[in-house]
Each structure stands twice: as C-alpha cells, then as structure tokens.
Amino acid sequence: MIDGGPLTIEDVRRVAVDGAQVTLGPKARELLAAAHGAVSKVAAGDTPVYGVNTGFGSLSHVRVRPDALRDLQKNLVLSHAAGVGDPLPKPVVRAMLFLLAASLARGHSGVRVLVVERLLDLLNHQIIPVVPERGSVGASGDLAPLAHASMVLLGEGMVWHGGEQVDAVTALKAAGLAPIEFEAKEGLALLNGTHLMAARGALAFAELQPVLAAAVGVAAMSIDACMASEAPLDARIHAARGQPGQMAVAKCMRELLAGSQILPSHRDNDPRVQDPYSLRCAPQVLGAAIDQLHAQRQVIERELGAVTDNPLVVAAASGGFEIVSGGNFHGMPLAIAMDCSAIALCHIAGISERRSYWLLSGHDTVNPVKPHLAGNPGLESGLMIVQYAAAACVNELQSLAHPASVGNVSTCGGIEDYNSFGPLAGWQLDRGVRLLRDVVAIEWMVMAQAIESHRPRRSGNGIERMHAMLRKLVKPLTHDRSPATDIQTISQAISAGSLGCDGLTFGL
Q1: Same-domain pairing of 356 and 264
Q2: CATH number at residue 289
Q3: Which of 76, 114, 347, 441 is deepest in the core (most CB within 10 A)?
Q4: What is the mean pLDDT of the chain?
Q5: pLDDT in tens, 119-153
C-alpha cells in the first residue's frame, strides 16, 4: 500500500521484479484530493502559474487560455515522448511507475486520485509501457522516459501485455480500463520527477547486497586457498584504523575461517613474509568500497520518500495552499551517488580478479598448486581462461566507472543549462553490478577448486559450509570442460543469496 510515506528498496524490488500488487491507501487519497483542489483553483484564476496555465521550459512565458489547459497537458506528454534506443527492461519500467505513483500520492503535485489509481492499474494488470532507454538528461525530471510511460494513460503508445507487444488501447480494453484525459498540471506532474534514475538505483542496490556478501565470503576462502596468513585479519589492526567497513569485513573473514586446519599447517614454516595486497589488504579495500556503497545507498533510500515534481503544492503560512516553483526534479544527488557506486564496484571486482590471477599463475612457492589448476598442465588448460573472462569484466567496469555526471550539455534554449545525466549513471551501475557478480563467481570457482588441492585438511567451518553448498551446484574440475555454464550457475546462486557471509551485515 502506498499511503504518502517513503518506500524501501525491498518494496521496489517486490513490485518491479516479483510483481507484487499495489493499492492506494486512505491517507494518500486525502492528500491527493487536497492538493488537486488547490491546483483547480489556480487553473480557474487569472494568475499565471508555471505548468498550470503556461508553456514549459523556455516557453514558460507563454500564457495558455483556460479552455486549452487539457490540450496543454496532452501535448506536453506526447511531444516529450522522444526517446530513442532499445526498450528499458520491464522491471525498470515497473519500478519507475511505482515510484511515480508513490511520489504523486504524497500530495504535493496536485493530480487527481484517478491518475494515481490508473498508474497502479498498469502495475496490477501487468501492462508495461514500452519505454526507449535513451532520452533523459536527468534534470527537469526523466522527461522522455516518463512521457513514454504516461502516454499509455491517454491510450497512446505501445505496451507489453499478455506476453506480447500491443498498442495501449488494446491492452487497456483487455483489462477493462479506458483512456483518461489529463487536467491542469497532471501531464507535467507525471513527467517531472527522478523516477527512472531512482528506479535504476534502487534495483541495482537490491541486486548488489548478495553480491557483496559473496565477495567477502570468497575473500575469506582465498586466504586458505592461497595458504595466506590470517594475521592481517587481527581485530586490533582494524580497530587501530577505525573504519567501520574494514572492521566488519575482517570480522566476517575471521569468523568464516575459524577452525581451519589449513592455517596452522603452514604457519611456522612459511617463507613468504607478507602476502600480496589482494590477500593482505582485502578488509581495507572491500571495507572502503562497502562504506562508500552504504553512503550512496542512503541517497537512494531518501529519494524513495521524496517528491521531485515542479512546481509543488505546499502549505501556505497563512493557511491553505500555494504553488511554488523549484528544482527538485534535478537528478544530481542520484547521479553522483550512482557514479560513486560504480567506482566502488571496480575495486571489489579488481581485487577479486587479482586473487584469482595470483592463484592460477603458479608463481606462489608457498602454495604450489598446479598452474591454472589443470590436472595435467600443458595437455590441459584448466581454469586459465576464466581469469581472462574476469579481466575482461574488470576492464569494462573501469570504463563504466567514468562518471556520467561530470560533463554537461545544455538543453531547452539554455534555460535548462546544467543537467545531471543520472540515467546514464544508473545504466552504468546496473551493468556494473552484473559484471561484478560474474567476476566474484569466477573467484568462487577458482578458490573452491584450490581448496580441493588441500584435502584432507579442511578450511574453516564457515568456508566449508559455503564450499559444500557450491559443490551441490558445480562439480570439481577433474578434466578440461567448458567453464561457462559453471560460472553462470555460480553467478545465479550469488544473486539468489545462496553464497556468502550468512547472517552478517556490512552496513548495507
């Protein structure tokens, strides 16, 4: 139920991915009715108010007569549906509609209850607008994507319904619904928000949580797989620095390694004075990335309770309501948050790939596993090329980490002269989470195979639990075979939350 309050990332995931039904609560209905009454009074008056009885953007100086206000809103939506490129993924469109409805329901936009109900009808009847991926610059709202979604309420555009792509009127009729006309400000309210950006961010963070747990879990496994020292995990080291993510990662790794028979087997006769950074500094690197992601997730969560329309219907000091213009539609908070998150993902993936490389290279004299973990090196290549795949993912992540928000292109005759480009930041983050998951899956494959080489000695209780779970899904490597299916299987298990530090949190 949306009732004027904030949503959670899990709410967004349940509606967008699981198809949960959504209802409009009584408090939201009251808020909507009050704000709509305020807009109706302005629309009937002589005072020019942006978005109600004027043009838009650089045309805001043009006054629109009262008998043309419905045409004004319809024309706005149709003219702004100018997106290009492939369609957005269906869960992203559903999340965008859900966030739009929740924002309008907070009673600062002035739309009718009917408009929000119809948005919920689209969600509940599985009518998913076909929305081109490109077109929003992340300011003045996600105009083009939201226009493509909103025009469906008018009976315009194409949708997915019943497993196929059909025109909006056909889908609405099949669901027992009819197109509606927009009244004063309603078209603008539907377009003027950060809902595509916020949808991308929320879904990316929903996907990211189990990947982080898996990344920390396999970092712990790598300590035993590479016969590294556990000394750098000493709680006193991390307390001396005081970084919360670092301390949490080290604690998790210690707990997973507790009871290991591998650690003491080489503790007293280990000629390697210090391990490579990818092993020794795992808590510092992973912790830094996790702390950053925690901060950026909070930005996304705040946006899930926000109103990003313009102008807004707000309480007047003298009582009643007034309509005030501002800039809440600007996506810079989200753009910077997602740009920073993409950088953090690079380091989680990068240090994971380095550990896989170290073990597969065969240069470690302390842990002389066969090169590339091949059973018969030379005749067989073992896991040689999975590291190539991880390297390719890491390279792409490095490209995706170039911030979308740092460059500006002016729009709308210079009135909208500084944009966020948050939609691209969201796309990059979404792609980055998927790449990271594959890199971590590859490390799981490598380290689980390396643990086999230490038998009959066992790793820590937590590591062995995860190893056994992995072996239920993927058999050990006994001869050369295509690893692609195994990587995909492990990646899917990570996404489902089946692998990682069970019951431990990292600030996210």
Answers
A1: yes
A2: 1.20.200.10
A3: 441
A4: 93
A5: 999 999 999 999 999 999 999 899 999 999 999 99
Containing structural domain, residue 43? 9-193
Asked about 418 being catalytic, the answer comes back as no
CATH number for the domain that contains residue 48: 1.10.275.10
CB 120 within 8 A of CB 23: yes
Model confidence band, residue 365 (pLDDT cutoffs 50, 70, 90): low
Domain finish residue from 149, 173, 193? 193
Catalytic residue among 50, 277, 357, 418: 50
Does residue 469 lie within any of the structural domains? yes
**In a shared domain, residues 323 and 365:** yes
More confident residue, 253 or 499: 253
Instruction: Examine the domain organization and report whether 120 and 162 are in the same domain.
Output: yes
Q: Is 161 helix (H, G, I), strand (E, B) or coil?
A: strand
At 463 the pLDDT is 95
Alpha-carbon span 414 to 58, nearest angstrom? 8
Of the two residues 59 and 349, the one the predictor is more confident about is 349
Distance between CA 214 and CA 220 in Å, rounded?
10
DSSP 305-324: T----SSEEEE-TTSSEEEE
Q: Which two tokens stand for residue 196?
A: 């595509």
> And the tokens for 267?
């503790």
Distances (CA, A) of 333 to 195, 300, 330, 338, 420: 13, 9, 8, 9, 9
Give the global pTM. Answer: 0.94
Q: How far apart are CA 439 and CA 353, in angstroms?
A: 7
| Interatomic CA distance for residues 354 and 228, integer angstroms | 14
* Planar angle of CA 155, 174, 203, nearest 5 degrees: 70
Given a cut of 70, whether residue 271 has pLDDT beyond it is no
DSSP result, 365-422: SSS-PPGGG-SSBTTB-TTHHHHHHHHHHHHHHHHHTS-STT----BGGGTB-----H
As a whole number of angstroms, the distance between CA 390 and CA 388 comes to 5
Domain-embedded: residue 500: no
The answer to whether the peptide bond before residue 456 is cis (omega within 30 degrees of 0) is yes
Res 498: pLDDT:
87
Among 159, 193, 227, the domain-final residue is 193
Asked, for residue 280, whether it belongs to a domain, the answer is yes
Quick one: DSSP state of residue 24? B
Number of domains in the chain: 2
